[in-house]
Design goal:
This protein is of the alpha/beta class. It is 36% helix and 20% strand. The protein is built from 10 helices and 10 strands. The strands form 2 sheets. An 8-stranded mixed β-sheet has the order 1-2-4-3-5-6-7-8, sandwiched between helices. It has a two-stranded antiparallel ribbon with strand order 9-10. The radius of gyration is 18 Å and the shape is globular.
C-alpha cells in the first residue's frame, strides 16, 4: 500500500479549492470561440473529453496547440487551464485542451494511451475547424509537461510506440512547450519520487515503464524543438535545467526562460503563467511561447 496516497489526495483537494477560488475571480477574455466537452473516445467518460478554442472570425487555417493540463497526475482538468488556453487562442491558434484519466485508479501508461487517442481524434476531426493540421504543437505544465515530453518522444520512436502500445498520429509534433516540467522522477526529490507507486503500481521498480520516469531514457535526437519555462519560485526549478541538459546531450534545439522577477514582493511560483494568465509576466510568457511556436515549421521527409 502506498502510505502517501491519502496525503497526496488531501494535498490536491486543498489545491482544487484554491484553484476554484482563483478561477472564480478571473474574467475570461472575449473574442474566442469555445467548444466544450467533445468526446475523443467512445465511452463518453469526462476524462475522455476535450475543449477547442480559436479566435472569432477566423478566415484561414491556424496552427494547432494541444494542451495537457498538470495536477500531479492525480488532479486537474481542462477547465483549470481554460483562461490560459483562451489567451493563447487569441494569438492565432486553435487550442485543443484535453482531459485524461488520473493515476490512483489508472497508471501512467493509461494516461499516455489517452493522450494518443486525443492526438488521433485531433488528426481525424479538426477538418471541421479552422485548423492547419500540418502545424501541430504540444504544450504541458508540471505533470502535464512530463506527459508532453514523453508523448513527443514516443511519436518519433517506433520502439517506444510498441512499448506503450499506442498508434502515433499522422501529423508530426512541430515543437513542445514545457512549463515547470517534471522530467526526472527517479532523482532524489521526494515530491516527485513519492508519486511512482501511483504512476507505475505497487511494484513500481519492476514496471517496464520505470526507466522512462527519467526522460533521459526516452529522449532522442529526433525530438522537435522545446520551449521551457520556469521561475525563481518554482518548486521544480531544477527540473527545467535537467530537461535542458537532456535536450542538449541529444542535440535537440531548445529555449529556456527562467523568470526570476518578483511580483508583488514575491517570487513567481510554479506554473504561474497557467495559474494566472492575466499577470504581466504571464502575458510575456504567452507572447514569447506563441512567437516560438510560429517560428517552427514542419518540413516533409
Amino acid at each position: 500500500m502506498n502510505i502517501y496516497k491519502p496525503l497526496l489526495k488531501l494535498y490536491w483537494k486543498f489545491i482544487s479549492i484554491s484553484d476554484a477560488r482563483r478561477i472564480a475571480a478571473q474574467t475570461p477574455d472575449s473574442g474566442v470561440v469555445q467548444v466544450f466537452d467533445l468526446p475523443y473516445c467512445s465511452d463518453s467518460l469526462s476524462e475522455h473529453m476535450l475543449d477547442i478554442y480559436y479566435p472569432e472570425n477566423t478566415a484561414k487555417p491556424l496552427p494547432v496547440i494541444i494542451d495537457i493540463h498538470g495536477g500531479g497526475w492525480i488532479y486537474g482538468s481542462k477547465e483549470v487551464n481554460r483562461n490560459f488556453c483562451i489567451k493563447i487562442a487569441k494569438r492565432g491558434f486553435v487550442v485543443v485542451s484535453i482531459n485524461y484519466r488520473y493515476v490512483g485508479k489508472h497508471l501512467i501508461h493509461h494516461q499516455i494511451e489517452d493522450i494518443f487517442a486525443a492526438l488521433n481524434w485531433t488528426c481525424e476531426n479538426l477538418n471541421s475547424y479552422p485548423a492547419d493540421i500540418s502545424s501541430v504543437f504540444l504544450l504541458g505544465d508540471s505533470a502535464g509537461a512530463q506527459l508532453a515530453c514523453l508523448t513527443a518522444a514516443i511519436t518519433v520512436d517506433e520502439k517506444l510506440q510498441e512499448e506503450f502500445c499506442v498508434q502515433p498520429p499522422e501529423f508530426k509534433i512541430a515543437a513542445v512547450g514545457a512549463i515547470s516540467p517534471a522530467v526526472n522522477l527517479l532523482c532524489r526529490n521526494f515530491l516527485l519520487y513519492v508519486n511512482l507507486p501511483l504512476l507505475l503500481g505497487k511494484r513500481h521498480r519492476h514496471s517496464r515503464f520505470y526507466k522512462y520516469m527519467n526522460f533521459n531514457n526516452a529522449a532522442s535526437a529526433n525530438l522537435p524543438p522545446f520551449y521551457i519555462v520556469t521561475s525563481a519560485g518554482d518548486f521544480l526549478h531544477k527540473q527545467s535545467y535537467i530537461l535542458a541538459d537532456i535536450l542538449r546531450s541529444n542535440n535537440v534545439s531548445f529555449t529556456l526562460c527562467d523568470y526570476d522577477k518578483a511580483h508583488g514582493g514575491k517570487k513567481l511560483p510554479h506554473v504561474f503563467a497557467v495559474a494566472d494568465p492575466f499577470l504581466e509576466q504571464s502575458k510575456e510568457v504567452i507572447c514569447e511561447l506563441c512567437r516560438f511556436y510560429k517560428g517552427q515549421k514542419n518540413t516533409p521527409d
